[in-house]
Write a structure and sequence with these properties.
The complex is a heterodimer of chains A (about 280) and B (about 450). Helix content of chain A is about 35%, strand content about 5%. Chain A has about 280 residues and is of the alpha+beta class. Among the domains of chain A are: about 100 residues, Orthogonal Bundle (Arc Repressor Mutant, subunit A), CATH 1.10.10; about 90 residues, 3-Layer(aba) Sandwich (Glutaredoxin). Chain A has a five-stranded mixed β-sheet with strand order 2-3-1-4-5. In chain A, helix 5 crosses helix 6. The relative contact order of chain A is 0.09. In chain B, strand 5 and strand 6 form a beta hairpin. Chain B folds into three domains: about 230 residues, Rossmann fold (3-Layer(aba) Sandwich); about 90 residues, Roll (Ubiquitin-like (UB roll)), CATH 3.10.20; about 100 residues, NADH-ubiquinone oxidoreductase 51kDa subunit, iron-sulphur binding domain (de novo design (two linked rop proteins), Up-down Bundle). In chain B, about 45% of the residues lie in helices and about 10% in strands. The longest helix of chain B has 26 residues. In chain B, the strands form two sheets. Chain B has a five-stranded mixed β-sheet with strand order 6-5-9-7-8, with no helix packed on it. A four-stranded parallel β-sheet of chain B has the order 3-2-1-4, with helices on both faces. The chains are: A alpha+beta (about 280), B alpha/beta (about 450). Chains A and B meet through helix 2, helix 5, helix 7 and helix 8 of A and helix 1, helix 7, helix 9, strand 3 and strand 5 of B.
């Protein structure tokens, strides 16, 4: 193959090796059978080809087109619309830091910056050892566990820059890593297969990490008259039993001087002192 | 300092009687999430699981639709459309297949109720699906789950398997003659697919772009057949209504907003999490019972239902969080995602980030949204970086006005909401960025760990 472009159309993508194709075809037929209309299988099929190669290749898209009697243009249009389809070779672990507003404010921005520096990669780039692809992600429906980091779409809740750096170090060291909510991590390819609709058959994965996360249970515990558990990052004194009266002492550990603190409505919030990391 | 000044200065109406959490909260869907294996069929059955289905199957489908309509259940996905009415719109005897599609694409920034619900109690959704399909005479239902939540997908796969094995799905369910197939479908990352017609296009294997309406999905939805699209929480609420009765359901909330719902508290609060309560509870009540804002800080702004609902301030602590109450105060109940930000948070930064999200997620189909969100981002980034000019503020307002109501779907309206509302309540702060040529806030103070060292010292 030459890199010289002569304005010629791209050659058709090479096919999968026969054994791979046979295996994928069997899976594809099972996926297609779930739907009244075959084209509905396209999104799961793209997950399936990602489970083969770790990203959506031209070969994968040709395969989807063949299976569904679509053109490669139709498949490409779909594959490029959705953010979960990776379009270049990427890492075994997809590390996504939520930087939508709430997580960003709660520390997601700081985590993302530190991970970029720590790993020496930018957004949507992969470490040289091929282990980690770092990206920033949008809201992942876990705002009560902010800041959130997702690895292969499993939840790592209530992260800090330190915990996130340890997380990626552990991933690169190759040991088994388990999320806060979800099952012990498998590779990105294995995750893609679950997304294609094939249940994760590893023993113990459904019950892994237990029931609802702590934040999910807070209202229930209060309703049952149990004291809400202190949150991970900000252990707080006991919940107020009665509504405090004006002027009553608020037992907080706030460090700013009370009279000039930003908590005073007369003093618009602004940087008072360097804090935190 | 008192808790009331901690939240802000809004006047507090006299909350008569007992303000204790036991009285104010109403765990129904969340009632047994603290059990060790809450997601299993066995646990669900121990808590009246699939009893609502038995009662539903004893009714005629039309009576069932009327019953759900009478209960007053309204959609929990944002728009608040009456669920029973949606079901009633499905033409009957038309000879076409009917479909139920559950919208589990929860992606609205701040929204985090359906994902924990499906993680802890997926059978409540499956039971609701069987009931709904019996009502609308559907024999194939789909759960469109966003792809980025594999732990939830795993439990849904398992719950569906259990339900088939136990005869709650498949052929002749519980001897009723109802046949039902349920397909769990994982999306691939696109906020727009939470919009119901974009979701249908996506489920048909296309780019997720909204459709022109009419025809509405009830007439021409999935594969151009009559289709009901409901939010997870709406459908999951149905079994309890059937089992405990519509009067029980109506005993909670208000006349027009009856029942219980999940409120998701997040951000700079002492105890972020899920709070299931009758509709109409206030943020003040929720904060009072849960420890308020994080120690030593006060509420600055919050969203009642995700980033697409106009933001509120501490003036709105006593707004009843139901469809009418929030609407009357100038916002929308949305998904009841109560994202609370304290005084350390820069509102320009928050709105810029949300706007970047809308620009990223705009599907590109219609011009006002595609181009408008792009230009909003350019202006906001300049303002945040101290490179803005005063006329930019009117320009922001103007562009938002050209998106709002002029776009193909609600994503555009959602993008305009934070712009309008932040300019309304915090125009000063925008001006400060312009006159001061930069952001006056230190983002380090907003982080979850900003106050930690002092906590540790005092502990």
């Amino acid at each position: 193959m030459t890199d010289v472009s002569l304005g010629m159309p791209q050659l058709p993508a090479p096919d999968y090796p026969a054994d791979v194709r046979a295996r994928l075809e069997a899976d594809a037929k099972e996926i297609i059978a779930r739907y009244p209309g075959s084209r509905s299988a396209l999104l799961p099929l793209l997950h399936l080809v990602q489970s083969q190669e770790g990203h959506v290749t031209r070969t994968g898209m040709q395969f989807c087109a063949d299976m569904l009697d679509l053109t490669t243009a139709e498949v490409t249009a779909v594959a490029t619309f959705y953010t979960m389809y990776r379009r270049k070779p990427s890492g075994e672990y997809q590390v996504g830091v939520c930087t939508n507003t709430l997580c960003a404010v709660m520390g997601g921005d700081a985590i993302f910056e530190e991970l970029k520096e720590h790993l020496g990669v930018g957004n949507n780039e992969t470490t040289e050892d091929g282990r980690i692809t770092l990206e920033h992600i949008e809201c992942n429906a876990a705002c009560d566990f902010a800041p959130v980091v997702m690895v292969n779409w499993e939840f790592f809740d209530n992260q800090t820059p330190e915990s996130a750096k340890k997380l990626v170090d552990d991933l690169r060291a190759g040991g088994q890593v388990s999320p806060t909510r979800g099952a012990p991590l498998c590779t990105y390819k294995e995750t893609a297969r679950i997304l294609a609709g094939f249940p994760d058959e590893r023993p113990g994965v459904v019950e892994a990490s237990g029931g609802a996360g702590p934040a999910s249970l807070i209202g229930l515990r209060l309703a049952k008259g149990e004291t809400a558990p202190a949150r991970v990052v900000h252990p707080r004194g006991e919940a107020p039993q009665d509504r405090p009266q004006p002027g009553s002492e608020h037992l907080s550990s706030h460090d700013a001087p009370q009279k000039t603190s930003a908590s005073d409505p007369e003093n618009p919030a602004g940087p008072v002192a360097e804090e935190g990391e | 300092m008192t808790l009331s000044t901690e939240y802000g200065g809004g006047s507090r109406p006299q909350v008569g009687g007992d303000g204790s959490p036991e009285k104010l909260l109403a765990p129904v869907l969340t009632a047994f999430w603290d059990e060790p294996e809450s997601w299993t069929l066995a646990t669900y059955r121990r808590h009246d699981g699939y009893e609502g289905l038995r009662k539903a199957l004893a009714m005629s489908p039309d009576d069932l639709i009327a019953y759900v309509k009478d209960s007053g259940l309204r959609g929990r996905g944002g728009a608040g459309f009456p669920t029973g009415m949606k079901w009633q719109f499905i033409p009957q005897g038309d000879g076409k297949p009917h479909y139920l599609v559950v919208n589990a694409d929860e992606s609205e920034p701040g929204t985090c109720k359906d994902i924990p619900l499906l993680f802890a109690n997926p059978h409540s959704l499956i039971e609701g699906i069987v009931i709904a399909c019996y009502a609308i005479r559907s024999s194939h239902a789909f759960i469109y789950l966003r792809g980025e939540v594999v732990p939830v997908l795993r439990r849904l796969h398992e719950a569906v398997r259990e339900a088939y094995e136990a005869g709650y799905l498949g052929k002749d369910i519980l001897g009723s003659g109802l046949d039902l197939e349920l397909t769990v479908h994982a999306g691939a990352g696109a906020y727009i697919c939470g919009e119901e017609t974009a979701l249908l296009d996506s489920l048909e294997g296309r780019r997720g772009q909204p459709r022109l309406r009419p025809p509405f999905p009830a007439v021409a939805g999935l594969y151009a057949c009559p289709t009901v699209v409901n939010n997870v929480e709406s459908i999951a609420s149905v079994p309890a209504i059937l089992n405990k009765g519509k009067d029980w359901f109506r005993s909670m909330g208000s006349e027009k907003s009856p029942g219980f719902t999940l409120y998701s508290l997040s951000g700079h609060v002492a105890s972020p999490g899920q709070y299931e309560a009758p509709l109409g509870i206030t943020l003040r009540q929720l904060l009072d019972m849960s420890g308020g804002m994080r120690p030593g800080h006060r509420l600055k702004f919050w969203t009642p239902g995700g980033s697409s609902t106009p933001m509120f301030t501490d003036e709105h602590l006593d707004v009843p969080l139901d469809y009418e109450g929030v609407g009357a105060a100038g916002s929308m109940l949305g998904t009841k995602a109560l994202q609370c930000f304290d005084e350390t948070t820069c509102v320009v930064r928050a709105v810029t980030r949300w706007t970047e999200f809308y620009a990223h997620e705009s599907c590109g189909k219609c011009t006002p949204c595609r181009e408008g969100t792009y230009w909003l981002v350019q202006l906001l980034r300049d303002i945040e970086a101290g490179k803005g000019v005063m006329s930019d503020l009117d320009k922001l307002n103007d562009i938002a006005d050209n998106i709002n109501g002029k776009s193909f779907c609600a994503l555009g309206d959602g993008a305009a909401s934070p712009i309008f509302s932040s300019l309304k309540y915090f125009r000063d702060e925008y001006e400060q960025h312009i006159t001061g040529k930069g952001c006056p806030f230190d983002p380090a103070r907003s982080t979850a760990w900003a106050d930690r060292h002092t906590t540790e010292v005092s502990a």
